[in-house]
Known about the structure:
The chain is of the alpha+beta class. The protein is built from two helices and eight strands.
Amino acid sequence: MELPQHWRLADQRYRLIGEKCPHCEASIFPPHDVCPECSKPAGSLYTFAGTGTVYSHTTIIDAPEGFDGQEPYVVAMIKLDEGPLVTAQLTDLDGPPEIGMPVEMVTRKLRTDGDAGIIVYGYKFRTALEHHQDEAASSQDTAGK
Ligand SMILES: [Zn+2]
């Protein structure tokens, strides 16, 4: 079944929706309709867990229009746990991001559009909270011994 393009685009702002190839099991993001791995139709939509690790990152000093006042901010390529790479802004950083740092998706205000001041929301990534909890738990273990 073909879904209307606008619906798919709107939904993708809030959830990481890609495809799972029924032929070769490849995880595909963003949706291509044709699997980049095996070139067969990749029809089944798949919602990614939204967790991954930082693959590379860059700091944006000169923000494009609509992002004014947010700079400097960090844009990273995230390697999702399912495999694909996704580009997104990092948020809530305690310090400089590290390659391989676990991150998770959150929904945040992205930018303000035009004079009407329409606020656009979408996904960003932050340091995975589980990672923090794991660190706290392991340091407690060490302290108890
Ligand atoms: Zn495939």
